[in-house]
Amino acid sequence: MRRLRIIISASLLLLASTFVFRAPSAQQPTNKIPIRGLHSEVTVRRDERGIPYIEAMNDDDLYFGQGYVTATDRMFQMDILRRNVRGELAEILGANALAEDKRHRTLGFAKVVDESAQHLPPNLNQAMSAYAQGVNAYIDSLNDQNLPPEFRILQYKPRHWTPADSLAVGKLLAEYLSNSWQLDIMRASLASLPKEKRDALLPERSALDVLVVGQDQAPKRSAGIVSASSSPTTVFDKAILSELASQIDSQQKSSELLGFSNPEIETLRASNNWVVSGKRTITGKPLLANDPHIPAAAPGIWYQTELIAPGMHVAGVTFPGAPGIVLGHNDRIAWGATNLGPDVQDVYAEKFDKDNPTRYLTPSGWREAEIRHEQIKVRKGFADPSTETQTLDVVVTRHGPIVLEKDSMRYALRWPALDPTTLESAGLFEANRASNWKEFTEALSHYSGPTQNFVYADVDGHIGYYGAGRIPIRKSGDGSVPYDGSTDGGEWTGFIPFDKLPHVVDPTSGIIVTANQRVVGDSYSYFLSHNWAMPYRARRIYDLLSAQPKLSADDFRRIQGDVYSIGNVTFARAAAKTLKSVSEPGAAATGSVSVSGAVATGSGGVPDERLKRLVADLETWDGLLVADSHTATIVSQMRNAFRQRIFSAALGPDLAKSYSWSQSDVLIDRLVTEQPVEWLPKEFTNYADLFRASYEDARQALIKAAGADESQWTWGNLVKARFNHILAAAPFIGAQFAIAPFPQNGTGGSGATVNVGSAVSMRLIADPSDWDKTLNGLPLGESGLPANSHWKDQLDDWRNVAPRAFPFSKSAVDSATKETL
To answer: What angle separates helix 98-107 from helix 109-117, to the nearest 10 degrees?
Structure first.
């Protein structure tokens, strides 16, 4: 039996089993804790934030140590993540989790990760096996006295960890980042609209676009590459749209009950990254920034770690349960990622035999569907951990599982994440050891997870971008509406070859920015997507970077905290100009609508005082979504009301509820500035009346949300940052896990700012000129244990957009060492 060497004070050693840390003495003695399964000694140091610096003499011990240490901080979170993927939450959380379990049982994630684990690349299999052994060494050390509080409350002990469990979180991220199939149903529902209106509702480009690869011009497509258009193959049944809406509503309610963030129909999720070359920095070396946006939770999805072994030294963040580093840097290169958001999910309307409901039609005739019989354990009650079993039969066609059905309509889902050969972790794991652009891109060629915008910088001064992942090529169409599953028209003929994926190295501009916007111009030969995030964030980042001749890490930090809203400023200025034109003395009265309590011009064209005040506020607003701003709240609510009135009039109330499109703000921006009559709701004769009605709608919404006292209508009172724990709402015992909501700066969604608020899951500013100057921070802290001092010790830094230095050199790490596990 070997030993895990830990530099730790004597008092810490006595208290380690209760996960309470205290500052060590000035002279720290070296203590040793025996751990079965190691080949040599492993040293684990922790700094003032509790970040572990793990050093080993070989890879097996390194990942064993990483598994052990991560489990001490995040074991319950790790167990929840794997249970969520496997559809086993109801076993410990009861009926509230049943809908979530059914969804993941339908997708068959457990079967996928178990099969994937049988065919891992040798180096990844070895690392995941060692990591699992480390986690299990920690699990085996648990007893009734030192079991983390969540397990004691729920009255169970975690089972052993497996390599397949380490693949689980990748599936959750894939689901979060690639949920476009619902949009296919929505697009099909718009088929009856005139083409001009449909195209306006589904815009794909903006004057604000920041392209990374190619230019906008007449596309020159390669042989076999179809144009980016699809038409519905079947008559759309509104009942399916209603069923989809019901399914989404059920999923949202389930998520709320479980303390998860609400999922949305939109596929694109927000993240920022950028990199600039040395010619644009004060150090003469590149700088790289990344802030992934993932729903807020307690604890967060990232875990900071530094790993040191012969031939490797890497630091950054990883997912609890996964070996290696996902985003960060080693001694030669740094990398970050955002979601590219291509359309990688297709749905197929399958035709089942009315006389034999397990048979469905294929081009070669009838075929029997696979019926997967799932048995889900459901806890009987909070005080009763015993379970009862519910059954779920999942129907699987040649395209994938049936994910939506109503009456005779049944839709199957095809998605790379449901293929066991898809590995979300392989390429990133190899990138940990890459030393240059060639080795980095070689590592990414093995990455097959949700397609990401990877940005890169190295100590030699190079910067680059690669959009890596599996993006299907279809036989016909582009998958943007459901296919007829009985034909082969929607079959995938392969994936975009790796060397044809969008990429660039050392651009002449010296700037690369991605923020989920459209990254390729029309000159790019392959179809990626019709649906991109609005380019507000990308444009703002690019403009701020371009405005500075020489950039510093502090400039990057200020950009990460920027809360200027391009979309809301556009709306405010347009509304002010229109309202001012009809409210000035002598202007004609516009009383074409009567809005109770609205700001209307008085008799003789004398403007109402409230209208004058509104116009002045809209004209002079600085565009910042800060907690104490009143105007930010009014503008945001007015814009929302304007959107609702426009889309309800254009689509009708039913279709308007299901309509969701990331770039719908392109249309809103055009309508408020150009004000075309054909889009004006019929109850209005001009846009001034529509703006006034939107203002009154905004006031009513604010009264409902915050009361009649207008002094309380501040951005921070209406928009709160929330970090929910799955047990925080539990009676009596939940308070220890609760983090009180607090006013938020910035926003995502419509009118998004660079700083989107609580969804900022971590911040990284990597400095190849001196890795010890790299900045990194989490929203809360390293520990998942509320009683631990590192539960939320990074929260103030996060709120102030002040990530701290992450030591890397031996001398810096030695100086930073404060305490250990």
So the answer is: 50
Question: What angle is formed at CA 4 by the lines to CA 807 and CA 168, rounded to 5 degrees?
Answer: 75
Give the pLDDT score at 20.
29
Q: Which of 466, 467, 493 is nearest to 479 (CA)?
A: 493
- Joined tokens for residue 30: 């070296």
Question: Which residues fall within 8 angstroms of residue 181, CB to CB, at 6 or more apart?
Answer: 345, 346, 347, 403, 413, 415
| Share in percent of the chain as helix, strand, coil (round to 5) | 35, 20, 45
Q: Name the stretches of the chain with pLDDT < 70.
A: 1-31, 218-236, 257-269, 584-607, 820-821
What's the rounded Cα separation, in Å, for the pair 379 and 385? 6
Q: Which residues contact 399 (CB under 8 A, 6 or more apart)?
A: 346, 348, 350, 412, 413, 414, 485
Closest by Cα among 587, 376, 338, 564 to 466: 338
316 Ramachandran zone, left/alpha/beta (phi>0; psi -120 to 50): left
- Which three-class secondary structure state does DSSP give residue 336? strand
Instruction: Using DSSP, state whether 50 is helix, strand or coil.
Output: coil
What are the strands, taking DSSP E only, across 279-426? 287-292, 303-309, 312-318, 327-330, 333-339, 346-350, 359-362, 365-368, 370-379, 387-396, 402-406, 409-414
**For 516-571, what is each residue's pLDDT tens digit?**
999 999 999 999 999 999 999 999 999 999 999 999 999 999 999 999 999 999 99
* Model confidence, pTM: 0.92
C-alpha 676/C-alpha 816 separation (Å) is 61
Task: Return d(Cα 629, Cα 330) in angstroms, integer.
Answer: 42
- Dihedral sign from CA coordinates of 98, 99, 103, 106: positive
How many Cβ atoms from other residues are within 10 Å of residue 772's Cβ?
Answer: 15
